[in-house]
Design goal:
Blueprint lengths: L1 H22 L11 H22 L1
Helix pairs in contact: 1-2
């Protein structure tokens, strides 16, 4: 479980930084951006492949 939490936190941090600084969807630069929506999208992008890896392992 420790690996899982570290993976999710690291993935969320890198995804948020990429989304905010590379794409320009930061809450202070573009307030209309849905932050919970971005969180859900990137969480699924990380967790779905991880779930398949855990199931098939």
């Amino acid at each position: 479980m420790n690996f899982f939490l570290q993976f999710v936190l690291l993935e969320r941090l890198t995804a948020a930084l990429g989304e905010w600084f590379s794409i320009g969807s930061s809450p202070w630069g573009n307030p209309q951006t849905s932050q919970p929506g971005m969180f859900a999208y990137w969480a699924c992008m990380a967790l779905v492949p991880l779930a398949f890896w855990v199931i098939w392992d």
